[in-house]
Each structure stands twice: as structure tokens, then as C-alpha cells.
Please model this.
Amino acid sequence: MTGVAIGLVLISCVLHAGWNLLVKRAGDKGAFTALYLIATCVLYTPVAIGFGIRHPIPPAGWLCIGVSGCLYAVNYLALSRAYKHADLSYAYPLARGSGPLLTVIFGVTLLGERLTAEGLVGVALILAAVVVLQAPIGTEEVLRGMARAAGWALLVGTMYAAYSIVDKAAVSRVGVHPVLYLCLAHGASGLILAPVLWYRKGTEALVTEWRRHGPAAVAVGLLIPGAYLLVLLAMAMPHAPVSYIVPLRTVSVMFGVAGGLRILGEQGAWSRMLAALLVVAGVGLIAWKG
Model:
């Protein structure tokens, strides 16, 4: 794997952890989610138009875009709820690690796939990370928040596993251009979720959140598709197998936990860094020998 490809993936990891940090720092998570989804639509519409003129989309492609748009919307809603109730250094590794784990479980139970011994060890490491993350930290109120956040974080992981399958089918089998697909699928999620959140929160809440965190919302709207585009560029390079890129992407867990502990001043450094290491090691084993 070339140094350029590795560099692109690692930059993507930093950007992914970075926009999650910005979501966590927002005041009203729901209003902020509506704002960054609107920003995504505005920022990437010209890109979608440009690519759409040159790369027509087959009917099956539009179906994939619609399905992924719904899955993305649920993902972003669950993410905002998880960060509302618990620390970034708790919810981020739980959400990011459960996605690959659930993908393996779906493959075994639904598709009849078999795991190697190393793959089973990888699954065990991720499960161990989930256990480590449950180490009691803080007051009883904090613990209740962690319990509520766990369900939302696991829903994020479920959506990650589901839309990964749809996305893979769209760009590899249906033949939708990856850049166009990302723009339209994320745009669809904005069209689905942003009006709902706007209605629930009200214009005043969105205006208040814009005044407080407007630039951050624009940054997140830009970074969400942009970070994944770097991964696609790495995948397109020669000598950059996806079996190396997938585990390398889990390094974002380390950046996310470090950001929560060092920037946000969250507690539980030893347990959450250990959990992050277990997630990275587990996903690496699954992708390498699973």
C-alpha cells in the first residue's frame, strides 16, 4: 500500500473524528444536525449537477440513493441523540466499532459466511471493547446517560453496516459514479431529516444555533462527504487493497477518543483508550484474516 494512499486514509480519519467532535460540542444537537444537513445540500448540489450531466444514473441507482438517504438520516439522528446523552469518547468508539461487528454478524447469520479463528478473535476484541466502555465513570446521572446513549450508538453502528452494503452495491454493481452517489445520497438524507428537525425544533432554535455554531455546521456539512471522498481516492489507487484500507479507517476511533479526552476534558482516559485500541485491533483482525 502506497504512502499516498495511507496518508489519504489517515487524513480522512482525522476529518471524521473532527466533525464528530464538532457535533458533540454543539449546543442543541437536533438543530445543529438540521443546519449541517442543509449545508451539505447547498455545498454539494453544484458538484452533483456537474457529475450528473456526465454520468447518468440507472433506475436501480436511484433506488440505492433513496435507501441510503433514509439510512443516513436515521444515522445522523441517532448520532445526535447519542452525543446528547454521553461523552464523545464513550459514544464514538461504540458506534464506530459496532458497525464492522454487526456487518460480520449479518454475514454469518444471513449469508451463511464462516469466520476464521482470527476473525473470531477480532469479534471477541470488539465485544471486549464494548465491555470496557461500560466501566462506571462519574455520577449516577452520567451512568444513566451512558445507558441511554448506548442504544443510540448501536443504532448508528447498525445504520453504518446497512448503508455500507447498499453503497457498495450502488458503486460496484449498479455503476453509479462514487462522487455523484455520495453527493446525492447525503443530499437525500438532508431533504428527509432537515425539514423534520426544523419542524420539531422551530425556526428560532435553528437561528440561535446558527448564531452560536454556524461556521461549525458549515464545516460538518463539508466534511461528512469530503472525508469519505478521500477514502474513495485511496481505493482507486494501485496497490491499495480494500482489505488494508478498512482496518486503517478504524484509526479514527483513536482520534475521536483522544479529542474527547484532551479537548473536551472527558473522564475515563484509561478505559476509553483501551477500548479504542481493542476496536482497532479487532477490526484489523477481521479485515486481515477474517
